[in-house]
Write a structure and sequence with these properties.
The protein is α/β, with parallel strands linked by helices. It has one domain: FAD/NAD(P)-binding domain, CATH 3.50.50. It is built from eleven helices and 23 strands. The longest helix has 16 residues. It binds flavin-adenine dinucleotide. The site of flavin-adenine dinucleotide has 38 residues, from helix 1, strand 2, strand 3, strand 14 and strand 20. Pfam families: DAO. InterPro entries: FAD-dep_OxRdtase (IPR006076), FAD/NAD-bd_sf (IPR036188), MTOX (IPR045170). One of its GO terms (molecular function) is flavin adenine dinucleotide binding. Its cofactor is FAD.
């Protein structure tokens, strides 16, 4: 391989990083491709948002770009032998308080896609799927979107299998925490330095570091003196609580083939809440409605939102007020039917958000050789099979003008208040109210 052959260092082995490695090794089997992540790809517990029991895989988007992209990804999930075992086509039951259902149906029509999807009245919806959602909250609801072709993926299992496949093809995996970036005299990024003192270099360094990205860029700016490296308001780390109950054998029979449930709200109220069908271990999962920042001083005088600094982001130590968020989620989906369920497992999952919920797949404007591919903004998992294809297009300056603009590092960004999923709380404020609430 000549010195001018491109080489790739991908920081972060979530869906953005793993998909990039997967597509790179397929396209360039002889090039040097390395992933570095603080957690082993097959560790029992990881901090990645992409590492999870399950994630919703749907193309039910009012934004036609993501609708199309999700359909492309779903086609892979449904047909490719590597991906297929992890996808479950259970359908989705989306309770809509806006025109969302009609917008999704219209997008499918515009894209010429046939699918078993319809908008149904509340009365009709309550009777579907054996009446599982008969006692859900329908306040302010217009209609319910039912798309039988949507579903969910065994998220962590798929992530591990696809990463393993890429390693077998020649991708190298280094388990280490990255503490900074390295630059040559011209300011070009040459790679990373790890907290254990190691150095890794490549012609292309791609940050797919999820919720940690803004903090890492602060560290790099501090060390290099190049303040333009900072993410500023472009990227904000947000946390969301998830919780699970283990269904009894009896209730499992009723819920085993349930669709994904979504309670949709408008931006004035807040984010959508979800309930995922039980895993093979009979565990039914929710995510809550509180999305929060964790703004703290990451370097002297520098305050950004980042996950807690413990090695596991303290993700399993979930305080009471956040657990209550899952009780609320249970109530708005199942009402009296779920009232007796015990919540056994809780986790706070961290992701990187942009105000428009668009990804950033872009060269970093402040250093040649440095690229950003992350910001799933609470919806990135489902695109796992195709994300890397677009990252390569970005690296080779072949993105369509529409994608290039949408995913750019520098672009106009809407006000956060327009985004229902924007992290609108501070974690500390949610926890502060805890002792008072107990009085
Ligand atoms: C509760 C919750 C539910 C969600 N549900 C869905 C869903 O149903 N469907 C859907 O499509 N999307 C969903 N999402 C969104 C989706 O999970 C994310 O958008 C996506 O997984 C982000 O992928 P990523 O690769 O950018 O980041 P991550 O998956 O977080 O991966 C980042 C990786 O970078 C590594 N890393 C970070 N910093 C460093 C460092 N300094 N050194 C070394 N390694 C580092 C981490 O260890 C991690 O492995 C959900 C998100 C959350 C939080």
């Amino acid at each position: 391989m000549s010195a001018s052959t491109p080489s790739y260092l991908i920081v972060g082995a979530g869906v953005f990083g793993a998909s990039t490695a997967y597509h790179l090794i397929k396209k360039y089997p002889d090039r040097q491709i390395t992933i570095v992540d603080q957690d082993a790809y097959d560790a029992d517990s990881r901090v990645a948002a992409s590492w999870d029991w399950n994630k919703v895989v749907r193309a039910d988007y009012d934004d036609i770009v993501y609708c199309q992209l999700a359909l492309e990804a779903q086609d892979v999930f449904k047909s490719d032998p590597l991906w297929k075992p992890f996808f479950h086509e259970t359908g989705i039951f989306w309770i809509c308080r806006s025109d969302y259902a009609q917008e999704v149906i219209e997008n499918y029509r515009k894209l010429g896609r046939q699918a078993d999807l319809q908008a149904v009245s509340i009365e009709e919806a309550k009777k579907m799927f054996g009446g599982l959602f008969e006692d859900a909250n329908y306040d302010g609801v217009k209609e319910v979107l039912v798309n039988k072709t949507s579903g969910w993926a065994q998220a962590g299992d798929a992530l591990r299998a696809v990463t393993k496949w890429s390693l077998e093809q020649g991708v190298k995996y280094v388990t280490a925490k990255v503490g900074g970036l390295t630059f040559d005299e011209s300011g070009r990024c040459t790679g990373v330095e790890t907290e254990d003192g190691g150095k890794l270099s490549a012609s292309h360094t791609i940050l797919s570091t999820g919720a940690y990205t803004a903090k890492l860029l602060e560290q790099a700016a501090h060390k290099s003196g190049n303040n333009e490296l900072r993410a500023g308001t472009r990227i904000v780390a947000g946390g969301i609580t998830t919780g699970m109950t283990t269904l009894t054998e009896e209730s499992y029979k009723r819920f085993a083939n349930m669709p994904v449930g979504v309670q949709g709200y408008t931006a004035a109220y807040g984010p959508f809440i979800g309930s995922l069908p039980p895993t093979k271990d009979r565990e039914l999962k929710w995510w809550g409605e509180k999305i929060f920042k964790n703004t703290h001083e990451v370097l002297p005088g520098r305050f950004v939102s980042a996950p807690p600094s413990e090695p596991d982001y303290n993700q399993w130590n979930v305080p009471g007020p956040l657990k209550q968020d899952i009780d609320h989620a249970n109530d708005v989906f199942y009402g009296k039917n779920g009232a007796e369920w015990k919540m056994e497992k809780h986790r706070v999952c961290w992701d990187a958000f942009t105000t428009s919920s668009d990804f950033i797949i872009s060269p970093h404007a402040a250093a040649k050789g440095l690229y950003v591919a992350t910001c799933g903004s609470f919806h990135g998992y489902k695109f796992f099979p195709v994300l890397g294809k677009y990252v390569i297009q970005m690296l080779e300056d072949e993105l369509t003008p529409e994608h290039k603009e949408k995913w750019a590092w520098d672009r106009e960004r809407p006000a956060p208040s327009l985004n229902p999923d924007w992290p609108r709380f501070e974690m500390a404020d949610l926890l502060d109210s805890w002792p008072r609430a107990k009085l």
